[in-house]
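re: ur question from yesterday

yeah so i grabbed the chain u mentioned. its 241 aa long if i counted rite. heres the sequnce exactly as i have it in my notes:
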Amino acid sequence: MANTPLGLDIRACIFDVFGTVVDWRSSITEQCANMGRIKGIERDWGAFADAWRGKYGPYMNKVRTGELPWTNLDALHRMSLDEVLDEYEISGLDDDEKMEVTHFWHNLRPWSDSVPGLYRLKNRFVIAPMSNGNIALMTNMAKNGGMPWDCILGAEVAQHYKPDPESYGTAVKLLGLKPEQVMMVAAHQGDLLASSKVGLRTGFVPRPREHGPDRTPDPTPDPSFNVVANSFVDLAAKLGA
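ran it thru and got these structure tokens back, copy pasting raw so excuse formatting
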């Protein structure tokens, strides 16, 4: 029996995290700026955050292509940090300090609607991150940001990075559900289109400020998406939670 006003038999909602649940750019920019003040380093920290995030996809592709063995996101962030530090001519950080900067990704601030919306959704559905972040990263982020996940799913569990179909399929299998009973929620249309190819339902929640004020993605949703909402609270309302 369908359990939402939209006639969808949804039992679980799984979420992209970076950009969808949390504001990674402002969080990384602020933490790096604070580190810079302490160390006496002046840089454009917003551009630094963008450059670091820009290495996210290429480093995951090294895993996909076999150039690197399975490597979790903390380790990939640490590798790419060295490149960004070199590009921005930042030196003098020891290994412990570099690891501390890497762990800035463990402390990303949720969007203002994320936690209230997640609590509403949790009252009716199983909720879990479906992130390329590793379990320690996701757990610490949830602890620091107050995100009430029922469990932690994602790339490290599947040993595949999104948008590999195995990543979504593993989440569905571990939840003991059918693909059509699971809704993937994301601000990134490619993530949703990839999950829909393996049968998941899709919920689009645009985050126009993800990349800062100067880079606004096209908000026009693909017509195939099952739900389009302007916040997690709106998503919960549309799903009857």
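noticed a couple things. The radius of gyration is 18 Å. also Strands lie at 12-15, 126-131, 153-154, 182-186, 201-204, 227-228.
anyway ttyl
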